Amino acid sequence: MTNPKPGDFVEVATAEETIRGTLLQSPELEKDVVIIKLPSGYNLGISKNKIKKISLLPQPQSLHEKAAVVTTAKKTASKLPKISILHTGGTIASKVDYRTGGVIARFTPEEILEMFPELKELADIDSRLIRNMWSEDMRFAHYNLMAKEVAKEAAKGVDGVIITHGTDTMHYSSAALAFALERVSIPVILVGSQRSSDRGSTDAAVNLISAAYFIANSDFAGVAICMHENMSDTSSLILPATKVRKMHTSRRDAFRPVNSTAIARVDFENKNLAFLTPAYTKKDKQGKIKLKLFNDKLKVGILKTHPNMYASEFAAYAGFDGLVIEGFALGQAPINQVDEFTAEHKKNLSAIEALCKKMPVAMASQSIYGRLQMNVYSTARDLQAAGVIGNLSDMTPETTFVKLAWLLSNYKKDEVKELVTRNLRGEITERTEPNSFLV
Ligand code: DAS
């Protein structure tokens, strides 16, 4: 009888009980523990000195075989709404590699579906991989890829699309899709997770199922993000695509609306939903998406201002097509020569003026919340005189970056300067509501 090895389906007998599951690799530091992945997805560690016997069992029906069964079953006519899930990777599509303890992108679309069977009770799901990548590697070309795949699904007449995505740059991608999918007539919900889907504490299930529930039970159309509302597993928020940001490295409720409120709350426990905003675009299945894509050869940068800046930091963008300056508060940057220590600041202003002659240079605030007011202080007035645009915008730096790249991809430079501060996709609000700060 060969000794069971990681990946085998086994039965572990101790004095108290017998446990069945998949044998996992024990981490280097826990060689005296046997780790079993239970069918529920939880992992269980059992001290070797408690184990009487480990028996090798036949592999249960594989996820793929089960998925095949599900696919066959699915062929029966379904009255459920049709939802396409497009996978791009990220933690939501990952597993913990017990050899290294790291998170590795591993799940196939079928495996993800098999892990969350509740999805199939909510909708008739089609699920396919378009990439399996970390979102920190997303480029403009991937925005175009996602937009085109969404348009394909919309053309098939689906009721909505879910895109599973890494969390690190999900707010860039949601803004990019909001701009690229003109006249989007169905819901396009981006979903990620902060904990890999094979861990008992994963947030993937609540986020995915809440997104499917929202699509199946509301008339919302447009791009949005669906992530946890708080640290518990009770509710998720549907967040505005161009006014959302990942505000914590690891919390499950890391995504917060910025200068806005959430569109809706999905009560996961009681399976109901409530809109939190009176105005939203409604579904129109007759509507036809117009794709306005990104020029993936464009060079657009974001430069965060900081104390002790040098003109060379601005001049480094001379060969670019556009620049966002993530300035201080209402829209300031270090450009004033005020004493013997600040001679460089005069050069900073000249470098910014030179850039503005070549490309659109848009201001955004590193305060994140609130609105640019570039007529309050002389510094920002001087920056506007130098050609910096964006005054009165309340966009996040990330949305400003994505919008500038999208405008440069689709409009002439002089149009770009006017459109940066015109609200096109809900990215700029008329008024800053008091309840839109740190909510
Ligand atoms: N690396 C992160 C990403 O792909 C993993 C995650 O948070 O999803 O965005």
SSE layout and pairings?
Layout (H helix, E strand, L loop, with lengths): L8 E6 L3 E7 L8 E5 L5 E5 L3 E7 L5 H12 L7 E6 L6 E4 L4 E4 L3 H7 L3 H4 L1 E6 L10 H16 L4 E5 L5 H11 E2 L4 E5 L12 H14 L4 E7 L6 E6 L3 E3 L8 E3 L6 E4 L4 E4 L14 E2 L8 E5 L6 H5 L6 E6 L15 H16 L2 E5 L12 H9 L10 H14 L2 H7 L20
Parallel strand pairs: 6-9, 6-10, 10-12, 12-13, 20-21, 21-22
Antiparallel strand pairs: 1-2, 1-5, 2-3, 3-4, 7-8, 11-19, 13-14, 14-17, 15-16, 17-18
The structure holds D-aspartic acid.
Notes on the protein architecture:
The structure is a single chain. The protein has helices spanning 63-74, 109-115, 119-122, 140-155, 170-180, 204-217, 311-315, 343-358, 378-386, 397-410, 413-419; strands at 9-14, 18-24, 33-37, 43-47, 51-57, 82-87, 94-97, 102-105, 124-129, 160-164, 181-182, 187-191, 222-228, 235-240, 244-246, 255-257, 264-267, 272-275, 290-291, 300-304, 322-327, 361-365. The chain has 439 residues and is an alpha/beta fold. It has 3 domains: 9-56, SH3 type barrels (Roll); 64-291, 3-Layer(aba) Sandwich (Rossmann fold), CATH 3.40.50.1170; 300-419, Rossmann fold (3-Layer(aba) Sandwich). The strands form 6 sheets. It has an 8-stranded mixed sheet, with helices on both faces. The protein has a 5-stranded antiparallel sheet with strand order 4-3-2-1-5, with no helix packed on it. Helix 1 (63-74) packs across helix 2 (109-115) and helix 4 (140-155) crosses helix 5 (170-180). The relative contact order is 0.09. The structure holds D-aspartic acid (DAS).
